[in-house]
Automatic annotation (TrEMBL):
It holds the Pfam family Metallophos. GO terms for molecular function: metal ion binding; protein serine/threonine phosphatase activity. SMART domains: PP2Ac. It catalyses: O-phospho-L-threonyl-[protein] + H2O = L-threonyl-[protein] + phosphate; O-phospho-L-seryl-[protein] + H2O = L-seryl-[protein] + phosphate. Keywords: Hydrolase, Manganese, Metal-binding, Protein phosphatase. Residues 2-171 form the Serine/threonine specific protein phosphatases domain. It comes from the Eukaryota. GO terms for cellular component: cytoplasm; nucleus. This is protein-serine/threonine phosphatase. SUPFAM superfamilies: Metallo-dependent phosphatases.
């Protein structure tokens, strides 16, 4: 997974700030170890599954996520899918994610099936810059939420946050 730090500019920024390769490599390794300990998902109010990427054919229960061992350095299988899969409005089922070169794209049929199996109402994910900072699927079961405005200095997207409250029946989105 830490190879993605190099491809998305983090390693380059480390090298600019810490001129020696040894320091940059040391920091990159330390950050990678920290990332390996972070949770891969959050379950809000037992009804909203929050992920970086999306769904997996290997995800059949919330316990499948709970059983994942921490400290991974190279994701595969379920972990890779939770990080890298993407919803696709034109897809049925799961299909190879050609755009990313790993994991899957998944359709609304998969979302409906997994929401029912997992006992959840919706999935909130990041992972893709969207113009308004958030995007809601037509069935309102997938929300893509992107908090970084002007992503990588060449997108003109807004950033957004989402507020979930037990006293409010619907999430509130803010750009």
């Amino acid at each position: 997974m830490w190879h993605s730090f190099r491809g998305y500019g983090f390693y380059g920024e480390l090298r600019l700030r810490y001129l020696g390769d040894n320091e940059s490599d040391f920091i990159l390794d330390a950050v990678g170890r920290v990332y390996g300990q972070l949770p891969l998902a959050a379950l809000l109010c037992r009804k909203i599954l929050c992920l970086h990427g999306g769904l997996s054919p290997k995800l059949q229960s919330i316990d499948d996520i709970r059983k994942i061992k921490r400290g991974l350095t190279e994701p595969s299988g379920l972990v890779e899918d939770l990080l890298w899969s993407d919803p696709s409005p034109s897809c049925m089922g799961f299909k190879a994610n050609a755009e990313r070169g790993c994991s899957f794209v998944f359709g609304a049929d998969v979302v409906a099936d997994r929401c029912q199996k997992l006992g959840i109402l919706m999935i909130v994910r990041g992972h893709q810059a969207v113009d308004e900072g958030f995007e809601i699927s037509s069935d309102r079961k997938v929300i893509t939420l992107f908090s970084a405005p002007g992503y990588q200095d060449h997108y003109v997207n807004k950033g957004a946050v989402m507020i979930v409250s037990l006293s409010h029946p619907q999430p509130f989105y803010k750009c």
